Amino acid sequence: MTSPVAGDSQFSASELANFNRDGYFIAKGLMPDSYLQRMRQITERDLNAHQGDIEYEAQLHYPGAPDSLDSEGGRTIRRLRQAVSRDPVFLQLVREPFLLQRLQQLLGPHVVMPLAHHNCIMTKQPRYSSDTGWHQDTRYWSFSDGHLINIWIALGTEDLHNGCLQVLPGTHTAQADKDRLDEALFLRTDLPQNQPLLQTAVPVPLQPGDVLFFHARCFHAATRNSSQNTKQSVVFTFRSLDNPPQAGSRSAALPELLLS
């Protein structure tokens, strides 16, 4: 695999400032073509074979999803889980300096990759994909604190037509009051007090090879895929060494990788 040159391995001061202000930053064209090609190959292989640990749209019951696994479109895949177990390319990727050094800037010198959260290939397929409401990834996670970083790697073009991510900039700095959330901890779109915040929503269109770094507390959402082609993205989560999962929680259910 070929990697960006060493000078491209860190965020600039202005890029870091933008991340700290907004809770996200897009590193344009960061992913080398050799990695993109291999990850697409693995994705197509496992989508076609329904191979490995899989989450189906019908299992989440989000708006637009099939009613059950046995209904029409019921075997539409939402996520190929446990990506690092599918091919060595994923483990090689997360140790690359162009990712790891940026993560160290955001998390500190010692970066850990939990395998219990994300660690997946997200797919949004035509016809039977669903809408994901506004949420923070930390809503069901259990760590010492909520300071975790996600990376979202676009394997193809992502835009509003095929359900790209949308974010609420700056929402990573505070936890939302529970009375503004529904029972599943999605931000309620029907509450008047949430409207000013919802009006700040920004779409995050991506081109193949773009990498979105975003804080796990940054509210984000996505609509269903209205195009004729499947959208594919690789998603991982990272924490600092001094932010361990709480014992006995789902966050502690799987091993973790110490990357630096």
Description:
It is a single chain. The longest helix is centred in the N-terminal third of the chain and has 17 residues, at 33-49. The radius of gyration is 18 Å and the shape is globular. It contains six helices and 13 strands. The chain has helices at 13-22, 33-49, 57-60, 88-94, 97-107, 195-198, and strands spanning 24-27, 54-56, 77-81, 111-114, 120-124, 132-135, 149-154, 166-167, 202-203, 211-215, 220-222, 231-240, 256-258. It has one domain (12-258): q2cbj1_9rhob like domain (Jelly Rolls). By secondary structure, the chain is of the alpha+beta class. Strands 1, 2, 3, 4, 5, 7, 10, 12 and 13 form a nine-stranded antiparallel β-sheet that branches. Strands 6-11-8-9 form a four-stranded antiparallel β-sheet, with no helix packed on it.
Largest sheet: 9 strands, antiparallel
The SS-based structural class is: alpha+beta
In CATH terms, what is the fold-level topology? Jelly Rolls
- CA distance, first residue to last residue: 20 Å
- CATH structural class: Mainly Beta
Taken in chain order, the helices and strands follow as HEHEHEHHEEEEEHEEEEE
Number of domains: 1
Number of helices: 6
Question: Under the CATH scheme, which architecture would be assigned?
Answer: Sandwich
Task: List low-pLDDT spans.
Answer: 1-7
